[in-house]
Amino acid sequence: MNISKSVMWFDVRHILMLIALLVNSADVRSQSHINETTVYNKLKFFDWLVKESPSAVRIADSKDAAAIALLDHSETLLVSAQQNYDAGELELADKSLSLGLKQMTTASRKIKDLDRVEAAHRQLFEQLQKHVKTFVEAFDRVVQEKGDNSVNAMLDRKRLNEFITTADELFTNAQFAEANQAMRQASDMIENSLRAARDREVLLHELTFGSLQEEYDYERERNSSYVLLIDVLQDKTAVSDASRDYINTMLSMNQKLQEEARALATQGDLAQAIHVLEQGTDKLSRALRVSGASF
Amino acid sequence: MRNYDHKTQKCDRASFRIDNMLAFILFVFLILLAIDLFSMRDARAEYGDVLINNHSDVAGMRPVVFPHWFHRIRFRCKVCHADLGFKFEAGGNDINMLKIIDGEYCGACHDGDIAWSVDNCDLCHSGTPGTPTQVHESTLQKLKATQATSGNKPK
Amino acid sequence: MNIITKKYTHSVIVALVTLAALFSIENSHSADPNSFNRLLAPASTRNPPPPLDGIHDAASPGAALLQTPKAAFETLPKGKSGNYVDWVKALDEKKLNPRYDRTNPDAVPVVMDLNIVREVKGSMPNVVYPHKQHTEWLDCSNCHPAIFIPQKGANNISMASILLGEQCGVCHGKVAFPVSECRRCHSQPKTEKAAAAVTGKP
After folding, report:
1. Residue B136 and residue C58: Cβ atoms within 8 Å?
2. CATH class of C76-202
3. What is the pLDDT at residue A230?
C-alpha cells in the first residue's frame, strides 16, 4: 500500500515539474514540428494558385512549353500534397507544397502579366515626366539666381531635350520599357546638373510673412504643434504627478488664450490675436520643458 | 531525498511529506515564472515594423509583419521605394500573394535567389490576428493612443 | 523531528524569497525613491524579441524563428530613439553596407551635398536639412516633387504636420528617427539679434 502510493506520487510530481519546465522555456521552437494550420493554409492557397489563379490561366494559355511543364508538375505536386495531408503526413505534404510554390513562382515569372506591366510602365513614365519637368524648372531658377553662364553650361539642354523627345515618341508608339529608359536618362542628366549647380551650398529660407493673416496662421499651427509635441513626449518620458498637473494647467491656460485669439481674429484684430497666441505658445514651451524637451 | 528503507520497503513519512511540499512550492514558483515570462505587460514592438492586414484576416492567415530594420541593414530606401515602387504608406500598396509570386513588390527579392522564397509562409505571416494595418511605435500611433485615452484633440 | 522542521522551513524560505525577488524586479523602477533613472523606462524593454514585442503572435511558428533585433544591432552604433540605432553613423562608419541597387551589391549612391536652413519663430534653433545624409539612402524622386517642391518658399512645413505624419513625418516618426530628438534637426543656434528679430521681443 505504501509503495504503490509512493510510486504514484513520484510520477505525478515529476510530470508536473517537467510540464512546468516546458511551459517556461520561452525558447520553444517548432522547427521540428510542421504546424498543421500552416500546411492547411498553404495547401488551400496552392490549390487556388494551380487551378484557378490568373497566373495559372496565363501560363496555360501561353505557348511557353517550359512554363506549361512547370504548371503540370505543380498539379502533380498538388495531388500528392493533398494525399499526404489527408493521410496526416504533414512533413511530406509541406515538402511537395514548398517545391510546388517555387515552381509556380518560376513559371509565372516567365509569362508576364502584360496588362499589369503596361500599367506600371505608364505610371512610371508619368512620374518621371513630372520629375524631369520639376527639376528643369528648379535648374532654371538656379541659373536665374546666379545669373552666371557657367551654371547654365552644366546642363546640355540639347541632349536633354533629345532624350525627352525620344521618350515621348517611344511612349506614343507603345514601347513603354524603352520610353522609360530614355526618360530615366533625361532624369539622371538633370539630377546630375542640379547636383553640380548646388554642390556644397547652404541655402537660407528666411521666415517672412506676406501678411498678418499668414503670420496668424503660422502662429496657430505652431501653437497646435506644441500641444501635439507635449502628447508625444509624455509617452517617452513618464512624468510625475506634480509635473502632470502643471502641464495640464498650462494646456488649459493655452486653450483659453487660443479662444481669445480666435475671437480677436474674427473681429479683425490680427496683430493682437497673434500677440495673445504667442503668450499661449509661451505657456506651452514651459509645459514642454517639463515634459522633457530641452531646447 | 526520500529515506527509503529497503528492508521494510517503506518511505520515511516525514521526508516523504517534505519532498511533496518542496515539489509543490517549486511547481507554483515555476508556473508564476512562466506567467511572468509570457505576459505582454510592457511589450514594445520594434520601431518601424509595419503590420499589414489588408487581406490576411479575410484569408484566414495571420497578418504580415514587415520589419524595416532588417531590410535597412541590407538595402537603402531607394531600392524598394523608388526602384520597386513601394509607396510610403502602410497598406497602401495593395500587395497580395499573386503579385508576389509574379515578381512584384516583395516578390522582387523573395524569389529564392536574393532572399528566401514564398513557401515560408510563417516568417511573414506572423502577426497577431485582428490587428489593424499600422506602423508600429510610430508617432502617429502614439498620438492616436493618447487622444483615445485623454479624449483631447489637438486644435 | 527538529532537523526535519529546519529543512522544511529552509526550503520554504528560499522559495518565498525567490518569489519576492521576482515580483520586486518587476516593480523595481517605482519602488526605490532614489533609483538613478527613476522615471525612464528600463532599457530592457527596448528592442524586444519578436515573440514578446506585442505585434507578433507568440503562438505563430514563424515568430520564434525570426532574428531578434538586439542580435542584429549588436555591432551598430547606439542611438537615443526609434530603433535605438544611429543608422547614419552606422553607414558613415561602414558598419553597414546596404545595397543601392537590388541586384548589384557594388552600386554606389550619387549623393547631393546641399544644406537648406529654415528659419523658425522663437528661440528654437533654425532647422538644417542636409541633403547629403538623405541622398545616401533615398532617391530624388522619393521626395521631389511628391512631398517637397524643390523651390524656396513653396513648402509650408510645421511641427504639427510632421507629427501627423506628413512632409518630414512621412519617414521621421515612422522609420527614421522620431522627432523627440529636437537638436538633430534644430541644430543651428540663432544669434540673440536674430532671435529677437524673429519674435519681436528683446
Report:
1. no
2. alpha beta
3. 85
Q: Would an 8 Å CB–CB cutoff place C96 in contact with chain A?
A: no
Q: Which helix (H) or strand (E) holds A204?
A: strand A201-205
Q: Please name the residue ranges forming H helices in C61-122.
A: 69-73, 87-92
Q: Specify whether the CB–CB gap between C56 and C66 falls below 8 A.
A: yes
pLDDT band for C40, please (50, 70, 90 cuts). Answer: low
CA dist list (Å): B14 to A7, A265, B6, B27 = 16, 87, 17, 20
* Length of chain C as a residue count: 202
Q: Which of C51, C115, C140 sits opposite A202 (nearest CB)?
A: C115
Selected for mutation to probe chain C from A141, A193, A195 (highest C CB count within 10 Å) is A195
Chain A residues near residue C152 by CB distance under 8 angstroms: 203, 205
B77 interaction partners in chain C (CB closer than 8 Å):
137-139, 142, 171
Nearest residue of chain C to residue A27 (CA atoms):
C64
Residues of chain A contacting residue B33, judged by C-beta atoms under 8 Å apart: 24
Q: Residue C189: pLDDT above 80?
A: yes
Q: pTM for this structure?
A: 0.77
Domain ranges in chain C are 2-75, 76-202
| pLDDT tens digits, one per residue of C41-50 | 666 777 888 8
Name every chain B residue with its beta carbon within 8 A of the beta carbon of C169. 139-140
Give the cell for residue B29: 514558483
Kindly report, residue by residue over C89-123, the tens digit of the pLDDT: 999 999 999 999 999 989 989 899 999 999 998 88
Band the pLDDT of C141: cuts 50, 70, 90. Answer: very high
Q: Are A279 and A232 in contact (CB under 8 A)?
A: no
Closest CA to C179 of A150, A231, A274, A122: A231
Domain ranges across chain A: 30-110, 114-197, 212-291
Task: Give C181's pLDDT tier (boundaries 50, 70, 90).
Answer: confident
Give the pLDDT confidence score for residue B30 in this predicted structure: 66
Is-cis flag, bond preceding C145, omega within 30?
yes
So what's the pLDDT on residue A290?
83
Q: Who contacts A94 (Cβ-Cβ below 8 Å, separation ≥6)?
A: A34, A38, A39, A42
Which residues are CB-neighbours of C151 under 8 A, at least 6 positions away?
A137, A138, A141
Chains in contact with B, counting 3 or more C-beta pairs less than 8 Å apart as contact: A, C
* Closest by Cα among C142, C151, C139, C150 to C112: C139
Does residue B79 belong to the interface with chain A, where contact is any CB pair within 8 Å?
no
Contact A13, B22 (CB under 8 A): no
Interface test with C, best of B123, B126, B135 (most C CBs within 10 A): B126
Main-chain phi, psi angles of A202, to 5 degrees: -125, 120
**Facing B49 at nearest CB: one of C22, C55, C72:** C55
**Residue A220 contacts by C-beta under 8 Å, 6 or more apart in sequence?**
A261, A277, B155
Which of A27, A187, A198 has its CB closest to that of C114?
A: A198
Give the pLDDT confidence score for residue A26 in this predicted structure: 42
A with C: how many residue pairs have Cβ under 8 Å apart? 122
Chain B residues with CB under 8 Å of A26 CB are 37-38
Cβ atoms of residues A259 and A266 within 8 Å: no
Distance CA C95, CA C97 (A): 7
